[in-house]
Amino acid sequence: MSPSKWFLVALGAASLAGCNVAGQKTPDPRVSGRDAEFLALAPKASIPSEFERYQVDYRTSEPVGSIVVDSHAHYLYYILPGGKAIRYGVATGQDAMGWTGRAYVGAMQEWPRWMPPKDMLQRWPHLQPTADAGGLPGGPDNPLGSRALYLHYPDGRDSMYRIHGTNEPEKIGQGVSSGCIRMRDIDAIDLYSRVKIGTKVVVM
Fold first, then answer.
1. PANTHER family from the xrefs (predicted)?
2. Total domains, the chain
């Protein structure tokens, strides 16, 4: 085989290897009532298989029950015992709007109301009527999606960053947000069922 053909074969093998996921898919949480109703109406999109929800091997010094966000790779890990984690694909902040640091879950809401933040209103004035109306009620078209975890800094201040669902699931795996961490709605429901107020969050 010529060197050029060998290179092409090796390149193809590397590309295929990059698509493989070393882990086990976890089942979707069972939903009913409002969750089932809203999820049926929520926007749908296919995402690359590597951004679906898996249980994976993951070594970290963070304690079991913590959340670790790898902003560069667009993954969120919920730490399990025994060197394992549930890995979720997420959308993270744009380069100029990303953030890193430590926080904790200070509040939790199901199908939360969305209020456009001040910096967003400055960039997109057309959202002002939504703010004037007291925000957008929770539902399948709400930008916060099915669940929201409100992140507070260690000193108790609201960081203004959230881990939440999304009405734009096609953007999972990208850097598109204003700093918040977006998840598929079904993944946000799954993570929400695992965490509690006080859960530690590390964003890298």
1. L,D-TRANSPEPTIDASE (PTHR30582), L,D-TRANSPEPTIDASE ERFK_SRFK-RELATED (PTHR30582:SF24)
2. 1
